[in-house]
């Protein structure tokens, strides 16, 4: 595999993904909405097909969704 960089500009988040290493981050989203990002490290032929979508919902809606799963 190759290096990737997980980026969501509206949230100010950018995390590198390095093959063979674990990486994590956390952040707090104060406003419900849909946030979009992209792999921002040129990583190969399918680089432009690595979109990122994060949907932020209020906690009570998330709990209801989990309960119905």
TrEMBL record:
Entry-linked InterPro entries: CcO_II, CcO_II-like_C, Copper_CuA, Cupredoxin
Gene Ontology cellular-component annotations: mitochondrial membrane
Any GO BP annotation: ATP synthesis coupled electron transport
Annotated membrane topology: Multi-pass membrane protein
Subcellular location: Mitochondrion membrane
Keyword presence, Acyltransferase: no
Major enzyme class: translocase
Cofactors required: Cu cation
Pfam short name (any one): COX2
Domain of life: Eukaryota
Keywords: Copper, Electron transport, Magnesium, Membrane, Metal-binding, Mitochondrion, Transport
Primary localization: mitochondrion
Catalysed reactions, as listed in the record: 4 Fe(II)-[cytochrome c] + O2 + 8 H(+)(in) = 4 Fe(III)-[cytochrome c] + 2 H2O + 4 H(+)(out)
Molecular-function annotations in GO: copper ion binding; cytochrome-c oxidase activity
The protein's Enzyme Commission number: 7.1.1.9
Domain Cytochrome oxidase subunit II copper A binding: 1-68
UniProt family annotation: Belongs to the cytochrome c oxidase subunit 2 family.
Quaternary structure, from the entry: Component of the cytochrome c oxidase (complex IV, CIV), a multisubunit enzyme composed of a catalytic core of 3 subunits and several supernumerary subunits. The complex exists as a monomer or a dimer and forms supercomplexes (SCs) in the inner mitochondrial membrane with ubiquinol-cytochrome c oxidoreductase (cytochrome b-c1 complex, complex III, CIII).
Protein name according to UniProt: cytochrome-c oxidase
């Amino acid at each position: 595999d190759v290096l990737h960089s997980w980026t969501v500009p509206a949230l100010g988040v950018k995390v590198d993904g390095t093959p063979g290493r674990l990486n994590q981050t956390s952040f707090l989203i104060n406003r419900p909405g849909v946030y979009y990002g992209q792999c921002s490290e040129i990583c190969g032929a399918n680089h432009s097909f690595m979109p990122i979508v994060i949907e932020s919902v209020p906690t009570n809606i998330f709990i209801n969704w989990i309960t119905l799963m």
